[in-house]
Fold:
Amino acid sequence: MKRTGIFYGSTTGTTEAVARLIAEKMGVEKADIHDVSRINAETVGKYEVLILGTSTWGDGELQDDWYDGVEVLKGTDLTGKYIALFGCGDSESYSDTFCDGMGLIFESLKDSGAEFIGSVSSDEYTFSASAAEADGRFVGLAIDDVNESHLTAGRISRWTEMLKAAIS
Structure:
């Protein structure tokens, strides 16, 4: 398997917990799980596959640590790398900005030369709008651990199997 790093921004711990579940399913070592507030171009450069996770805050905004994290990524040569995104959100209370943070990262990096993998059908989700969704698909894995925690493990399992197949 290609060298994989997981990068997350987490304020309440939910996105970090999801990152660790994804790491377990992907067989990614703890040393390859990174808090995005502590990354630099050298850290990012070590990996062929970048799994990036954020929550969405306020009125559809990135988790705070991702503002600098996106700048680090944009300043790094991502050509030929794979990027998979996951986002945590609340589809009930924030139905009109569900997982927008994931969409913001995608928009910032879509022209980076990296290949995005891991888009997921939005059919199984209940929400009214998302910057992370177009044409019936999310740009990555959407997680609602607030209202649909009973679906989280299955969603992660299916998604990580998809990623493994894409990068093998």
In short: The first helix runs from residue 14 to 26. The longest strand covers residues 49-57. The chain has a mean pLDDT of 96. The chain is about 35% helix and 25% strand.
